[in-house]
Amino acid sequence: MLALGKLLELTLAGREPAEKTQLTVEGVRMRWLSEGALEVRPPEARDNGLDLLLSAGIHGNETAPIELLDRLLHDIARGDLKPRARILFLFGNPEAIRKGERFIEQDVNRLFNGRHEQSSGCEALRACELERLAASFFSLPGRQRLHYDLHTAIRGSKIEQFALYPWKEGRQHSRRELARLRAAGMEAVLLQNKPSIVFSSYTYDKLGAESFTLELGKARPFGQNAGVNVSLLENRLKQIIEGNEPEQAHEGLDGLQLFSVAREIIKHSDAFRLNLPADIENFSELDMGYVLAEDLANTRWIIEEQGARIIFPNPKVKNGLRAGILIVPTTDDQLA
Ligand SMILES: O=C(O)CCC(=O)N[C@@H](CCC(=O)O)C(=O)O
Ligand SMILES: [Zn+2]
């Protein structure tokens, strides 16, 4: 296998490769761009015009998605997977991956869309670099742009695999992309309805990609991901990479559950209290009238929405950040 196929090994060791560019026997060019960043380019005659950004390890302890990208890269470097798409592989937070931590000083996935400019430290620098790498990758005109930012969650979930679809004023969510996600094993999609500071929102809003955060199961250390079944996603990614994806009907979305954001729960102070058991699962339903959270100055978050559920509850986030998302079921009426 070509040495550049071992991007994960290089990243874990904090090493730069001696050779920055390598060609497979099929003429696929692999180019190391920076720590945890590698571009794959098919020969011109085979290029089908898709630019695919695959990122993982934005949170360093979410290893199943990192292992998935590692397998795809190995397959490409061995010549077993023959790309027709141009691909950018990114391991988001190398220092946190080496330490097996969600982040070192601050969450990289709260530093996009300009937020890194108001901050400092290794994660702010990395968010800036990731924006630059993504912007440069998605700068070629006339090509399709697709970004999957792969994650696993802190807690268990009543719906194991789901996507978050960013929002931009005047842009409609795509039914075709949702059908593609369904075929990739996603059981639900959260349709966002306001701007955000996560990586997928940056590539959606600023770079015109179809972009998604994908949640694939529960976060575990390297080598302990047998419980995270990514086989449907892995198959679909291989088909997207090789340009032989079966065209799927996208009228009914095949049971894909759709949700929208009712409210984001923001932690404003150290007095913030979240009234949920520590082991509550994502997508747990909350009864009307339930006092979900309390904060300074008698602020109370009371459930007023029929069918409300909670995802990503986390009272330990820094003040000013999202400590959970209240979601409600929605329909497919607004899809393009
Ligand atoms: O389990 C959790 O609480 C967080 C899992 C995770 O890292 N999720 C992403 C979602 C990004 C998005 O909103 O699109 C995150 O919180 O950064
Ligand atoms: Zn994550």
Automatic annotation (TrEMBL):
Pathway: Amino-acid degradation; L-arginine degradation via AST pathway; L-glutamate and succinate from L-arginine: step 5/5
Annotated binding of Zn(2+), by residue: H59, E62, H151
Recorded catalytic activity of this chain's protein: N-succinyl-L-glutamate + H2O = L-glutamate + succinate
EC annotation from Swiss-Prot or TrEMBL: 3.5.1.96
List of catalytic residues: E215
Cofactor annotation remark: Binds 1 zinc ion per subunit.
InterPro entries per the UniProt record, alphabetical: AspA/AstE_fam (IPR050178), AstE_AspA_cat (IPR055438), Aste_AspA_hybrid_dom (IPR007036), SuccinylGlu_desuccinylase (IPR016681)
Every Succinylglutamate desuccinylase/Aspartoacylase catalytic domain range: 49-239
Keywords recorded for this protein, A-Z: Arginine metabolism, Hydrolase, Metal-binding, Zinc
GO molecular function, one term: succinylglutamate desuccinylase activity
Role summary: Transforms N(2)-succinylglutamate into succinate and glutamate.
Protein name (record): Succinylglutamate desuccinylase
Classification lineage: Bacteria, Pseudomonadati, Pseudomonadota, Gammaproteobacteria, Pseudomonadales
